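Sequence only, no structure available. Ideas?
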Amino acid sequence: MGMFDSIIFQMNCPNCGTKMDNFQSKDGCCSLLKLNFWEVNNFYCGCPYCNTWVEYNLKLKRKPNRKLTIRDYKKSVEIPTIKEQREHRKKYEEFAKFIKEGLDNENKNSKEDKE
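Reply:
I predicted one. Tokens follow.
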């Protein structure tokens, strides 16, 4: 996989409406920095719930002498098949259940320690 930078940008998934806020890019220095979207030419994210892929690419040949807006980027969306979405949702829900059970056990143990 390699290193990347996180991009400060969020939107709702165009397929299922889930909040997407874990955008990444390899256009920066790839040092796990947090960058604004206008600092890179390309950034992307997969929906954590349905696995829809959203990617933004700068439309302009060179950056203008102004702050870029999201309208300066071309948005591409790849929506998985219904079968792929179901499989991804099942994994997502299993993982969420696993995390919730772990947190519940941790809270239970900490309460027992206090008593």
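The mean pLDDT is 88.
Hope that gets you unstuck.
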